[in-house]
Amino acid sequence: MKLPNFYPIFDQSEWLHRTLPLGVKLVQLRIKERDAATLAGEIAASRDLCADHRALLVVNDHWQISIELGCSFVHLGQEDLDSADVAAIRRAGIRLGVSTHDENELERALSLDPDYVALGPIFPTILKKMKWQEQGLPRVREWKKRIGKRPLVAIGGISVERAPDVLAAGADVIAAVTDITLNADPEARVAQWLATTGETAKADV
Ligand SMILES: Cc1ncc(COP(=O)(O)OP(=O)(O)O)c(N)n1
Ligand SMILES: Cc1nc(C(=O)O)sc1CCOP(=O)(O)O
Ligand SMILES: [Mg+2]
Fold this sequence. Notes:
CATH superfamily: Aldolase class I
Order of helices and strands: EHEHEHEHHEHEHEHEHH
Organism: Roseibium hamelinense
Number of helices: 10
Helix content: 40-55%
Cofactor: Mg(2+)
Shape: globular
CATH architecture: Alpha-Beta Barrel
Family: Belongs to the thiamine-phosphate synthase family.
Bound molecules: ligand LCLJCK34, ligand 3NM, magnesium ion
Protein name: Thiamine-phosphate synthase
GO molecular function: metal ion binding; thiamine-phosphate diphosphorylase activity
Structural class: alpha/beta
């Protein structure tokens, strides 16, 4: 399955409202520590916005609400997998992306036949504290060889300027947070991302 190669990650549906009209076709909603009603409202609003713009929504962490709300794609990290019911996710017809940071995690991820494998952090990230050192571009090359045709998502410290090298190293998709959300003009930055990754020229997914 081919995925769009630009994958912004946001913590509110308002960001989707701002960026989907620019041509974003793959987006993650990554919400931490909100009450259940707010969370359900944000996920439902994001689901509907993505449907309106023919974009793919990936919901981070919240697989149960994703099943309840009829979402089509979830992202789980290794800790999430410890408690997630992957069979229930699959029964619901939901696609699955999985984070990896080392060989063991990659083996575990591949055993689940995921719809993409994410590798990070490629460069140092300021978004969250991580126990992993930066992976660097050689690791991107290695991961792509390991996973073959399955889409490889690169994440962590990636900017528009760094994106071409990451794609050239073998990533199929680039995920980014702070390069957009901390930019003085996030919409203009998204437009730069779309131009750099070639997404503007592509059809709907
Ligand atoms: C595309 C992508 N890659 C990695 C992550 C990180 O997932 P996880 O390790 O579960 O950490 P949290 O994002 O839940 O803090 C991701 N969300 N998306
Ligand atoms: C949420 C997340 N997961 C990572 C991983 O390596 O699994 S790196 C990361 C943060 C990505 O944010 P930014 O683009 O601002 O660096
Ligand atoms: Mg998680």
